[in-house]
Each structure stands twice: as structure tokens, then as C-alpha cells.
Task: structure prediction
Amino acid sequence: MKNLLLAIFSLFIAGAAWAQGVRPEHSGAWYNPNQSGHGLSVEVIAPDRAVAYWHAFDPLGDPLWLYIDGQIDGNVIRGEAYTVEGMTWGVFDPGTRNVQPWGTVDIAFTGCHSAELSWNSLFPDYGEGQLPLARLTAIHGLACHDETDALLGYYDVLWTETESGATHSGTAIIDGTGFLTVAFEDPEWDYMNMHGNVSAISGDWTGQVSMAVRLAVSPVEWVRDLELSGTYSFGLWPVITVENEGNVFVFTMSRERLGSGPVSPGDLEGPWRLKFAGVSYDVEVDQDGGFEWTVTGYLGTWAYRAHLETLPEGPPIIPVSLEVATWGGQTLTPMRGHAIYYFDPDAGPYSNEKYLEMRVTDDSGGLFWVMELERFDP
Result:
């Protein structure tokens, strides 16, 4: 089995796209995945105005409909909220309509697929609070792209060393939050880890990139910090190029495996065969994206619990969390990463030959695991 040279970056692209503020592309349905059953419909109707409808429930559990007359302030829709009563079914007499002020509501967009809802009601039973939101639906013909979306995908990577001229090739995944993992096949190292932060100053389709990166060939030796800088650009495919002291890293979007999406929880639910450390395990992904398995060896039995944090009709690159309990009942530091969902290009998108490649790391970057899952019919 080939050794892996593992490179982990934490990539956060500066929100230059949001300097434009709320855009028509933000129109659509929004909700909180952990509170499915209520949500908002947002309509951007002018550069400075939007309306929203919050379909919720009152403290007694009865349906509640709030109308929000919003003004756009940067990346925030801010406005007064009103309740509406009256107009019995079939009659719809406007004279019976009763509109009452309810309070204020703000919707702050942090990306194409994320927002923060906050409210302050005039009624004590509703109080004030805030709630993260995720996109549920979009308007046909109004595709929304922010910079991390544009970079999202599966990449071929080439690292060229300055002194020797040696090259190392590998693959990278960038998810919708800007988190990046890279795995290089290289027999020279039994282990290598690379993690840090990236920032960018954007133009329309090009930008300057800088990375603060830490490298280690093992968990205990050869640790050093690097400052990498370079550019990114978007032609037919995104390309990221960064370097330090002549060492050059080039990330080029892979044409071979871009992921097949959008992905919904129903696409993931069901039986999968997981390959981990050379052993196969049959796992069942539940409706919430969770699955578990156990590994028994000379160190005892370890229990693994993973969660695929997909959203309805979300991108094919999915955030992942993993918890591990050792034989002594101790819990390892929670791990995080992402998975790419794809199908066999020779079989086509309508076959059952679906795959997940999952990569997770702990906070320190001292552990890095790559797992593969294949859909199967038991």
C-alpha cells in the first residue's frame, strides 16, 4: 500500500463577494436543518428592498405567518415584522384583514448558502434570539456563487521543490466552507501533515492568495511554519498557485472527478461498504447522515461514529465530523473534514455505482484518515 503524503489546509477566502451586499440570487427558501418545519421565503425586489415571509408557529403550536418589510443594508435585510389575521377562506374580504406589528427581524447573509436570522419581538412570549440558516431552494436562473463555491471541487495538485526540482503529485478537495485537504502519494515519507489558513483579495475572477502553513513529516519531528503566497484565477477551470522560497504548489480543478450533485440526504441514506485501513465494513447511513462501525484489533475494540452534514440539495462536497471511542471508554479528540460524493463516470449518474471519499483530521493535524465508501445492495 502506497504511503500518503498528507497536506491539510484550512482555507477561508475573504468575503469580498459580499461587499456587493444582498443580491437577487439570495432569493429563495431558507431554514435551519435542525428545526425543519419552519423557515423563510426571501424575495429581493430592488437594490435596496426585500420582502420575507416567516412560516413559523406561535407559543401554543398554532401556525404563525410573519410578513417582513425589509430594507437592504449591506449583507443584511432588516425590517419590521407583522402578523396578519382575518380573511376567512373562500371569502377573502380585505375588510376583515387585521395587520399588527410583531417586532423586528434581521437576515444577515454570510454566503450563498448561509445566513443568520435574528429577531426582537414586541411580545414577551416570543422574546428575542438568533438562529443560523441554510439555503433550502433557489430561484431557477439565479445561480448564486461566492468565492468558496467557485473554488469548491476536486483538484489535481503538483508540488515542485525548489532545490531538487523534484515533483510530488496528489489530489485535493475544497468544500463549500473553504476547508481544503490534499493527499500526495510519495514513498519518501511515511507521514506528512500540512495545515494553516488562507486569505485572499478578490477581483472579478482572479485574486491574491496567502497561506500560513505548518508542515510536519511526523507528529514529533520536522515542524516548521511557512508563509505561502500566490494567485487564484478562474478560466474554464479554477487554478490556485502559491509558493514559498521557490517551492511551488499548483492546484488545478480535476476534470475527472468534479463530484455529482446536488446531493440530498436521500442520496446518502442506506447501505454502504466502507474501506478503512485495508478492511471493509458494512455501514448504514441514517436519514440524518449518521453511521457507525467498530474495529477490533490488538488494541481492543474502537467505536466510530461519523456524521455527514449534508443539506437538502447541497453541493457534492460534504462536511464530515467523526467521534472515536477507544477500548478503555476514552473519547479521542473529535475529528472533522469532508467527503466528495461522485459516481463512476463510465457507469453514468443513474447507475447505483455511487461513491464517497472521506478525509478527516483532528484539530492539531496529528491524525489524518482517508476512507472510501461504495454504495451497495445487500
